[in-house]
Amino acid sequence: MFASLAGVLFDGFAFGMLLFLLSVGLSVTLGMMNFVNLAHCSFAMIGGYATVSLANRYGWPFLATLPAAFVAAGGVAIALERTLFRRLYRASDLDQCLLTIGMVFISIAAYAFFYGTVVQSTPMPSYLKGSVQLFGMSFAAYRLFLIAMGLVVAATLVFALETTRFGAQVRAAVDNQRMARGLGIDVDRAFMITFALGGGLAGLGGALAIEIVGLDHAFALNYLVYVLIVVAVGGLGSIGGSFAAAVVLGVSDMAGKYYFPWLGAFVIYLVMVALLMWRPVGLFGKR
Amino acid sequence: MEKGRAEVSYFRAQARWRPLELAFWAATLLPFVVTPSYLSLASQIAITALFALSLDLLLGYAGIVSLGHAAYFGFGAYSAGLLSKHYLGEPLTGLVVGAAAAGILGYVTSHVIVRFRHLALIMLTLGLGLLLAEAANSASALTGGADGLQGVKMSPLLGFKFDLYGRTAYAYSLAVLFCVFLVARRIIHSPFGLALRGIRENATRMPAIGAPVLAHLRKVYTIAAAMAGAAGALLTQTTSTVSLEVLSFGRSADVLVILILGGAGRLYGGIVGAIIYMVARDQFSGLNPQYWYFWIGLLLVAVVMFLPNGILGGLSALRKKPQ
User: Fold this and answer.
1) This model's pTM is above 0.90
2) I want to staple A251 with a disulfide (CB 3.0 to 4.6 A). Which of A12, A48, B77, B120 is the partner?
């Protein structure tokens, strides 16, 4: 019982880290710019397919494809932000929702066209396969890697936002856009970089998700719900909140699948609805 | 006294039937004569239009964004299906039961829904929709799970059997759509409907003129849920089956697309959107569904960027321009 509990907690924590990587970008863009980007997981898909293409067609090592996934998704995010998204920053929630849902549909069709509808996988290097013995228990090496990545990204983001000059500009732009502009901060540029960062992190998450949940053309829609749950529950723009929400949801999803398999995804939705009813602005939301 | 009469005449002018509307409803009878082989499609269109009309009350008039409206559609569909499978197959009873069941669910959930706005509202409606879909999937003993509800037997409607060509089905769906449309039209042109529009425009100012915002929103949410349930019951009865798809996120998204395409906040927006969407989907049915969604996605992007009020909004803007 104890071993299985520890196993569930470990797997749930690793899954939570994956959810955190997938959703932290959305938390930042949504919280900062009030832009409801339902196409966030499409950026994750760009990263995922970049990794699959580079690893399977050109034989890149897996670790080398991760920065490429980040850059590819971030680049597309910049292009879309410049052409489409920025024109809707002041539009209603509904318009933003609809535009980005449209983009989800387009991306799903585009990937079905180029890559087919089979679940993609990518070869793992030998040091990420198998398991590691620690304290008399075995842990899957890839999940340990995932947890390390999640912790590193969380620490880097917190550090970057709290201590750097750019982070200060971003926080100023979030708190009071007009005042920040008045102080000479280039809010547009700050927003563009943040958007690129959000898209890039989603791409990284998408690349890391391949080994755990697989990657197919419907990824953009299937994981959208999880990502939205993390963001809405964690609170907009709060990195710590996203982290906590991702861990709670990852663990409760794993525990639900392990102990109550017949309930399916019911548990995770129930947790979300209950948490939202209790705190509509999220666990760590300020507004 | 004078002022009161002016108000009454304002409502009368708003509620007057225009010739174009009469022509439109007369044209809905054309499929019986012109395209008799497409009557099942026509009844599907009428059902979808009814569903879109119910979302229009919420989204277009009351300003409640919902990404999980299929919950009520599906609840009505399963209620009507279970009734006809286990107890009696009389269609009108099933219709009333489906609408009532969905209305009750709507009333219960409305107490939660109306207190939220913006992202939390979108997430909650999405969450409730997914929750219900998962519940139906888990309770496979009751709902048949992924195989769908089998064995729905419909008895004849007022002596007319549901035939293979969909003649009864279309007449039935169209009649229900028209009746519900009359109700919706009456609601929208009533002081209650006007209050809803006021809430949509400024929810914080409405209490100042004495409008009970939450009670109004609960009322319209319940009405819209019952309408969606009626549409679901119609789908069950005209197709004699219920699948999990009636509760899916895809259906919620589709009806939103339909309404936005036609024009939200316009009485005919959902109906026009349903006609265009369903006919186009039927024409492109040879296309792989994935590629169909490519065009829907492109259409959504185009509508949001260039036609913010949908097709009907664009048309009325065109008509006003020359003047």
Assistant:
1) no
2) A12
